Amino acid sequence: MPASLGVVLSNLAVCGSHKPQAASLSRTARTSVSCKHAGEHSNPRHLGLARGENSARVASLVSRGGALGLSRKALRVEAVAGAYSNLAFDDLVKINNEESDLYTVINVKAESKPGLLNAVTGTIMDLGLVVAKAEKSTENDDAAYDKFYVTDYDNKKVYDREDLTNIRICVASVISKEVGSRIPEVGSRISEVAARPLTDFRKENTEEVEDEEQNRRSELLYSLMDTYIKNDIPSIQSSIVNHVEYTIARSRYRFDDFEAYQATALSVRDRLIESWNDTQKHFREKDPKRIYYLSMEFLTGRTLLNAAYNLGVKDAYTEALAELGYNMEILAQKERDAALGNGGLGRLAACFLDSMATQNLPAWGYGIRYQYGMFRQTLSEGFQRESPDYWLNFGNPWEVVRPNVSYTVKFYGHVSTHEVDGRNVFRWNAGEEVEAVAYDNPIPGWNTPNVINLRLWSAEPTHEFDIESFNTGDYITAILQKQRAETLSAVLYPDDRTTQGKELRLKQQHFLVSATLQDIIRRYKETHSTFNDFPDKVALQLNDTHPTIGIPEMMRLLMDENGLGWTQSWDITTKVYAFTNHTVLPEALEKWPVELMETLLPRHMQIIYDINWRFMQELRGTLGNDYQTMGRMSIIEEGEPKSVRMAHLAMVACHTVNGVAAIHSEIIKNNIFKDFYKIMPQKFQNKTNGVTQRRWLAWCNPSLSKLLTTTLGTDAWIGELELVSALRPHAEDPEFQRQWNEVKFKNKERLAATIANLTGVNVNPNALFDIQVKRIHEYKRQLLNVLGVVDRYMLIKSMTPEEKKNVVPRVVALGGKAAPGYEIAKRIIKLINSVGEKVNNDPDVGDLLKLVFIPDYNVSLAEVIVPGADLSQHISTAGTEASGTSNMKFAMNGCLILGTMDGANVEIAEEIGEENMFIFGARVADVKHLQETRQSARVDERFTKAVNLVRYGHFGWADYFAPIVAAIDGSHAGSDYYLLGPDFGSYLEAQAQVDATYKDQAKWTKMSILSSAGCGKFSSDRTIREYAEQIWNVKPCKRPDPAEKRVKPRMANSEDPNVL
Which residues, in sequence order, are bridge partners of residue 852? Predict the structure, then answer.
């Protein structure tokens, strides 16, 4: 029996449930029949699409009696099978192999009806059979049968008993569908399913007829979609193959792995959308305060497995696909990572959305739908090459385009003043307009019926095509506006070394906030007649300075578009905005030239001037004539060029400003924004970052997840990570350590295979896997890592064969992208690859040391790298990393941290203990002095030797690497700003401690277990709870759970999901 029989039976059940309707479109039931050996008569091939290795699963499917979908009601397989087995099939269909020497004869008896012959013929052909000829019975002969003479594709008769039974079932079901109910009723076997909420569309209407018609329509609409899609195996299979045929337009018998992925994704999305729509309706009814999270990046990664896990259907989909002949894990690999971010900022935003959904917060994310992402990184002779990331080439099955949700976004032009009702009103006469079109992406929470939304904006022209220019032969002008508009959402972080690049970046930021704020205001006004309650219903979080231009845009929309005065508009603005700072580097704080702002956003520049003037007046009342401090705090920075300090704008307008790690928050209070902190200390908070343990532990490391659940006796840790602290008593248990190490080794084998596939370098999974994956930047000190590899390489080269036996084999892997305009970072990538080429091909070293650079590092690669790492390096110069979140991901997977006391490393050390990490390097308090004295300071001689090997061309490309050498050798003022030389000796000592500890596997494993056990604090669930309670004042708003309450009440004031 073929693997797809479960799907067939599901379709037959649906067929059997249909009542005859006039002029109905006939649709044949379909199956695949596996033709097995029947003596020497039948060829052992599958008729139709056969995935024979899985055909044995069908017996278990039938015997299991899983529920099948029947018009959103449940039919069990056993009921279907039982019903069909009790039918007198001979009354409808007889199959005879004796009537003809060449053909199997299918005899069909049914009352004549137009279309029946074609329907039966189509069904037989869909079964993979060849209809050689057909004979119609005489119209007056009630005892006669229509005859169909068939063979398989090898022109052999069909003998297999199971195949013949399947043929009879299929043909009989089609007859029952076409001519009447011969399939028995099995309604008594209907299982209980969850009912969906009934929205009450009834309105007060003076016309009784209209009211009755509305009620009738409402009842009809509810009855058509009255229950949720079922998640049993046959229903899932039916959903998948229906999408194959009706959405993707492929034959359900002929679809490859990518098409199977698309259909599976759409099937999962169906289930997401049900809960998504009902969640938004619930929010609309309850009207809670909502949090809107604005970010230029959302590095979401792949969606399929994460959504399936969060919905609780992963196992069911895995089994359903296996029975269809597909592997869920293989299909998941067909999904392209969504190119919506680059580094930690975007990944943090994605983790936050997951936690907001899991915490049942009424939340929305807002970003840009980048067509090509930042770039796709490839390597050519060790150099980074950038190319567009065509992640949308084959569509994105997870998004829902909302063509009816679009807003006009303005640029350029001039501002005019008009008198309206006795007051001056400003009007922005734009020189350019584009349309922002919404694309929605459902975000499911774990263990909750809530599904929230990520809305991404795509830029489209206000006028698609200039037909007049085209008709006059000016073809370029005809499409210029379209291309200019689409450029806005083409690429993340365009290179801003040029004036045009800076302008495009600012345009992107305004595009995001303008469309978002128009959307938020529109949603608010649908249920409120004034703006009095706006601060009680809206909270806006700015993820770094990129969306800060939203502050003057909010003022503009409230004053110019909605008629509010300055005082009320400013009061609203300062109550709704909060700002997260993500950098401790003053040079990384955004500034825009006033000239550019006046040209691109003239009305906003006026508003910013007004904000700054009022702020300066307030400061004068506080500081008197301290113009030096006032100048440091001013939003407008005097100089050449005159600039707008976007972080200062956020400081002035936002009610709360937070850092993202304890040490970072202290730095911004005592250094970067110390003047603001002195005057407005109440604004400053810390919210230590976190990551979602669902994607970064439970889903990406299923073997460890299973071990944790078994050991803890519950899977509740997936929602409450603090529970993993109960692992501590097991840290020294030899049996638990053995299981722990088995999980780690399997993950290392998977990582080794990935490295070999991406780099061509074969690595030994028994080696220590030493990982540093993050954005390439001087302050993150990938250079310190590679110089350490150079030192280790030369040390191994100098060893005797006997000494080499004591060396711990090590695989050092780095990954990350360098910004296209960041030349030193790109040279660092080339240096890593040049050193790797030398080391990896040296027979004196062999497997004792390997150095690889993993290209195009992204979320999906991280999901392989993180579980397989033994050691992870987080070695930024103390006081330069705001937080870091990859350290949290590695630590909770039992990877040990080699790092400085910087960013979140400080708090990780507090939670898991410094004794379970490898800490080195200068502390924050020492950094300034070391920088000032670097030129005259003595450094470890091993650092000088390693630098000189690079300087004098030991790894080739001496001229190309000369700027790197000059940047770190301390030969002139400002050289080695990030203190590689002063920290190098301490770094090598920490690495020696790593080697010694790794030789003691019991101790290493204990530290690994304690690392995981101490990571409860670093869940983004905790972070989001703190934001919600201490900054946003937003409460959970969980919709009724259909699993707890089968029939839900009708809801008034439904919100059309098309205009969410």
Answer: 813
| Tokens (6 digits) for 781 | 């000190």
Answer whether 510's CB lies under 8 Å from 555's CB: no
For 85, the 3-state DSSP assignment is helix
Cβ-proximal residues to 515 (8 Å cutoff; 6+ apart), any chain: 407, 409, 436, 438, 457
Q: What are 853's strand-pairing partners?
A: 814
pLDDT digit string (tens) for 742-800? 999 999 999 999 999 999 999 999 999 999 999 999 999 999 999 999 999 999 999 99
Which residues are CB-contacts of 647 (< 8 A; sequence separation ≥ 6)? 545, 548, 581, 589, 590, 673
Neighbours of 96 (CB within 10 A): 13
Residues 6+ apart with CB under 8 A from 467: 478
Residues marked as catalytic: 582, 774-775, 780, 885, 889
Long-range contacts of 118-125 (CB under 8 A, 24+ apart): 118/26, 119/26, 119/28, 119/174, 119/177, 119/178, 120/28, 120/146, 120/148, 120/171, 120/174, 120/175, 121/148, 122/28, 123/28, 123/29, 123/30, 123/170, 123/171, 123/174, 124/148, 124/150, 124/167, 124/171
Is the separation of the CB atoms in 769 and 811 below 8 Å? yes
Do 666 and 925 meet the contact criterion of CB atoms below 8 Å apart?
no
d(CA 374, CA 365): 20
How confident is the model over 880-934, as pLDDT tens digits?
Answer: 999 999 999 999 999 999 999 999 999 999 999 999 999 999 999 999 999 999 9
The helix (H) or strand (E) run that includes residue 996 is helix 980-999
Q: pTM of this prediction?
A: 0.82
* Close Cβ partners of 824 (under 8 Å, ≥ 6 residues apart): 778, 963, 964, 967
Among 941, 1003, 1004, 935, CA closest to 970: 935
Residue 205 φ/ψ region, left for φ over 0, alpha for ψ in the -120 to 50 degree band, beta for the rest: beta
What is the rounded CA–CA span in Å between residue 724 and residue 416? 62
Distance CA 886, CA 430 (A): 43
**Distance, CA of 184 to CA of 792 (rounded, Å):** 77
Helices 57-64 and 233-242 meet at what angle, rounded to 10?
120
The tens digit of pLDDT for each residue in 991-1040 reads 999 999 999 999 999 999 999 999 999 999 999 999 999 999 999 999 98
Token digits of residue 864: 């392989």
Q: At what angle do helices 941-951 and 782-797 cross, to 10 degrees?
A: 90
574, with CB counted inside 10 A (0-12, 13-18, 19+), is middle
Query: Which residues is 810 bridged to in the sheet?
Result: 768, 849
Token look-up 């008594």 returns 188
d(CA 771, CA 876): 14
Q: How far is residue 431's CA from residue 322's CA, in Å, rounded to a whole number?
A: 57
